[in-house]
Amino acid sequence: MDTSIRTLFRYRELRKTTINTYGLVYHWQGSNPDLKPLLLTAHQDVVPVEPLTVDTWLYPPFSGTWDGKWIWGRGSCDDKPGLIGSLTAIEKLLEKGFKPQRTIVLAFGIDEERGGIVGGTGIRDYLLSAYGPNAFALLIDEGGTLEAHSDGVIATPAVAEKGHFDLRMSISTPGGHSSVPPEHTSIGILAALIAELEANPFTPHLYRNEPYFTALQCQALVDPEMDDELRDLIGKARYSDKALADLEERLFRNPLSRALAGTTQATDIVHGGVKTNALPENAFAIVNHRIAGHSSVSTVKTHIAAVLLPIVKKFNLSLDAFGESLNGELSQKTSGHLKLSDAWGTALEPAPVTPWLKNPAYDLLAGTILNVVKTSARWNNPDIPVIVAPGTMTGNTDTRYYWNLTQNIFRYGHVSRFDKYNGAHTVNEAILADAFIDLIRFFTIVILNADESKIL
Ligand SMILES: [Zn+2]
């Protein structure tokens, strides 16, 4: 039998459902219907390759070249590992004649890189109607990584995902000829509003019950690069409020720590004006926010309105803040109007946090990661210390739509940043083939462990 026919034969053992044409859901029926299915998700789409950068790729970006060490191509780091890794694990299990007790479901989105608005929502609706709410034992999607140090390995499956809010600030003022201008044009006022937001960022905080704090405790145990003073501070912060405040002061000099512990803001788009002899009647800016787990969309909106109100008054503007007029009665004619709104109507609350203490699903995942590292040919060291710590995603994945499918959502790819040649979403995207093999082992072992587990 030639390979293609054999593959087709194996493929038929799974039931395929297409969602919105290209979205894929595969169902592999288990023999025990009492066990909640395992759900593995990934996305098929990739970001584009900027045509001007094609010449700077060492291998053509859609060639999938394996040079003996690296596998090159757009998507090799995001999210072909999750897609091809899980499918290869399934292929191998089929080839070995494995018959699952626990049903396995694979779901592959098509537009994660633009927010999953067709694929993610379609897959959610299908899975909810076909399986019901909270029907899955656990879900694994892309996200958290593993870090290898000389003294051990620390893996951080993400149990939390920050929220998202894009603020649109639209300002309108009377137009006219530039030869007799007012003191401030709409663009000048917009600049003042942006400057005020940047002068009043959200204050990040460490909370002892949040995953980032636990992750710091774990990191202090295994990271040899951490200096002893910081290690000491992290330990003391468990019970001393003074140490917690000192730790915040020290950590928040680093933008990544601030992003993990707090709500961030970034002015990413600004638009206004068409000609140098015409006053701009309209100008707008869009400010991206990633919302911390302890915050919410409404807290962010309230903060923005409060920060901007003095500027609104200073420039004598009328204000529509998310549908509400907040600056009271204006006694005189206003010099313009400011509208604050959700730029694309895509505000997203922070995801519910997957429990990591006394949660069998977390224990199963953590045990799997330990096993995969300790049996890996890459380290060849069954005694290597491995720590699994709860991680936080600063970005979003298709799991934003999957909250009602299971309480046990984990965002994790068993790959470290050193296994990526140049990272995702850029030129020369490549993954180390040995790391990819370990990722396939991860998927295989998590399927086998979930199949045998009595704890889920
Ligand atoms: Zn991705």
TrEMBL record:
Keywords: Hydrolase, Metal-binding, Protease, Zinc. This is Peptidase M20 dimerisation domain-containing protein. It comes from the Eukaryota. Gene3D superfamilies: 3.30.70.360, Zn peptidases. Belongs to the peptidase M20A family. The keyword Metal-binding applies. Residues 160-308 form the Peptidase M20 dimerisation domain.
